[in-house]
Structure formats: C-alpha cells, structure tokens
Amino acid sequence: MTEEQKDALQYITLFNIEARYEEYKCEFHKKCTKDFTAKNIKTIEGLRTWMLEKITR
Length: 57
Fold this sequence. Notes:
Blueprint: H1 3-20, H2 22-31, H3 34-55
Helix pairs in contact: 1-2, 1-3
C-alpha cells in the first residue's frame, strides 16, 4: 500500500467519525459540496478497485 493510499484511507475514516457525532454533523454537511463529494467518491472507488484486485489474486 502506498503512502497516498494510506493517507486517503485515514482521511476517509474521518467521514465516519464526523457523521456519527452530532457536534460534527453540521460542519461535515457544510463540507459536502458536489465537488467535494465527487472527488472523494472517485478516491474511494479507486481504493475499492485496488483492494478487489489484491484479494482476487
């Protein structure tokens, strides 16, 4: 796993924390613009593809 992939996973994990706790929800919702969401979905899809390739070998 590259450092970039590790960083992306660490960043994505924050979404779960921010969406789970009430005090963070409002701020997180403000971040979730169309561009923010599209960029992160693309990153997540790339990681998913990479992981699936690793486990099917």
